UniProtKB/TrEMBL annotation:
Residues 9-169 form the Glycosyltransferase 2-like domain. It comes from Kordia algicida OT-1. InterPro entries: Glyco_trans_2-like, Glycosyltransferase_2, Nucleotide-diphossugar_trans. GO terms for molecular function: transferase activity. This is B-glycosyltransferase, glycosyltransferase family 2 protein. The keyword Secreted does not apply. CDD domains: DPM_DPG-synthase_like (cd04179). Keywords: Transferase. The lineage of its organism: Bacteria, Pseudomonadati, Bacteroidota, Flavobacteriia, Flavobacteriales.
Length: 246
């Protein structure tokens, strides 16, 4: 705990057996109270590794529901365990768990209610092996989003995020997509509620075991990002209302 605030790490897992132990071993258990792993019907040994590591809270989807659906299960479980600070960490070791301290303390000390680890601040993305086409797409989409949404984030696409329970309880997550666009819908919901988001520089490690989507799904994701941004703009201007912002 941090000042009597319960810290929970959620791991949305899919085929993470090769990297799960390395990720888990770097979690700072001096402040972390619980770990929740949701397995989205992996085809590898993710569940076996999770059990061997002694992860207490393991949820398995009976079918592959998608990245967004995985996060919905993660947050629902974390809130049921009365977590005050919930940190979403990918178990593929693309992001270092060593930043959990910094992210959690910003929330515990009431500095910010949401903190994201940014691969773009500094040189973490390219130095860590992010493919150039993904880096360029990230920069273009982020520029578009900042203009349309009216914010100044360095990136909207990181998978390393920490939230206060107050923020999570205020969001209409069940109406969000079950796919990768969930992340961006969630950020727009956070801004719509008037919460501020902090960013800290995050070194990144890309490897063969790191989770990634192919070019076709990346294109689908990119179009989804544009759509969500425009929806947020229309909603804020009171031109059209959308369910995810209710």
């Amino acid at each position: 705990m941090i000042d009597s605030k319960k810290v929970i790490i959620v791991l949305p897992a899919y085929n993470a057996s090769e990297t799960l132990q390395k990720t888990y071993n770097e979690i700072p258990f001096d402040i972390v109270d619980e770990v929740v792993l949701v397995d989205d019907n992996s085809t590898d040994e993710t569940l076996r590794v999770a059990k061997e590591l002694g992860i207490k809270h393991i949820i398995k989807h009976d079918q592959n529901k998608g990245y967004g659906a995985n996060q919905k299960s993660c947050y629902k479980k974390a809130l049921s365990l009365h977590g005050d600070i919930v940190v979403m960490l990918h178990p593929d070791y693309q992001y270092t768990p060593k930043l959990i301290h910094s992210m959690a303390y910003l929330i515990a000390n009431d500095v910010y209610p949401v903190v994201m680890g940014s691969r773009i601040l500094g040189k973490g993305a390219l130095r860590g092996g992010m493919p150039m086409y993904k880096y360029i797409a990230n920069r273009f989409l982020t520029l578009f989003q900042n203009i349309v949404i009216g914010q100044k984030l360095s990136e909207y696409h990181t998978g390393f995020r920490a939230f206060s329970a107050e923020v999570l309880n205020s969001l209409n997550l069940e109406h969000n997509s079950d796919d990768f666009i969930f992340d961006n819908q969630m950020l727009c919901q956070i801004f719509n509620k008037g919460y501020e988001i902090a960013e800290i520089t995050c070194p990144t490690t890309y490897s063969e075991e790191s989770s990634s989507i192919n070019f076709q799904r990346s294109m689908t994701y990119g179009l989804g990002v544009l759509k969500v941004s425009v929806q947020y703009f229309l909603h804020k201007k009171k031109i059209k209302s959308f369910q995810i912002f209710k």
